[in-house]
Amino acid sequence: MLEIGTQTHPRPHQAALYILLYRNQVLIEADNQFLIPFTHFQPNANMSAVYCGQWHGQDIFVCRFEAIPKGFTETGLRELLFLQDQDHYLLLSRAHQLATWDRDHQFCGRCGTPMEGKHAKEHAKMCSSCNLRHYPRISPCIIVSIRKGEQILLARGPQAPKGRYSNLAGFVEAGETLEQAVAREVREEVGIEITNIRYVSSQPWSFPHQLMTGFFADYLSGDITPAPGEIEEAAWWPIDALPSIPNAATISGQIILQHVEHIKQSQSRST
Ligand SMILES: [Zn+2]
């Protein structure tokens, strides 16, 4: 498990493991191995190596490359994440989000001064001119599975493959609670009202820095009216005849399966 402690961040060293990124790709060795020992890769002094924390007692660093170094091949972050257990998933997500923060905060957003120093104990860059601190950005999002009797709502956005259906999801707006965001997204995307909105679980989704928060909700009123340009199709699907849904490594797939199980249990209790 990853320890996100408050110890002083170490410099790269020989006993650490390294995660190497090239654009949105992860550099791997044989068998999709993405944790690279020092014997296979040594960061040079010009390279920004961001400390990710201790993972099973070992220090982990992430480094970003402009070209693929010899001896490594690249693989898509998304594809690699789907192959991981929860422990490796969270480590890889964190490494990617910290590397993105490091790349995207080269200058102070308030006064434009180049950001040079990092805080010794936390992931913060401090502006030497105006003292503003820049932390890794985390963008809260909601994702919701909606029940109507023995059916759940599944929708397909314009980007989704044909025949693949998923939950409704969206970013939380400034000043909004998570529950308000759930109700608003559902109203905007399919034109229905929901009730009994309750939190289920969460998952970091590093494309590039979302924190997905998963909810269940119950249908209240209205007819499904897909928002043009946002939703291609949306419908109520019987839980025993679902279409193709997202991979169970994603929170989307997980909350669909959990909701189906929950509905089946409530049916068996009522009979
Ligand atoms: Zn500044």
From TrEMBL:
The keyword Magnesium applies. Keywords: Hydrolase, Magnesium, Metal-binding, NAD. Residues 136-261 form the Nudix hydrolase domain. It is an enzyme of class 3 (hydrolase). CDD domains: NUDIX_NADH_pyrophosphatase_Nudt13. GO terms for cellular component: cytosol. Coiled coil: none annotated. Its cofactor is Zn(2+); Mg(2+). The keyword Cytoplasm does not apply. Belongs to the Nudix hydrolase family. NudC subfamily. This is NAD(+) diphosphatase. It comes from Marinomonas profundi.
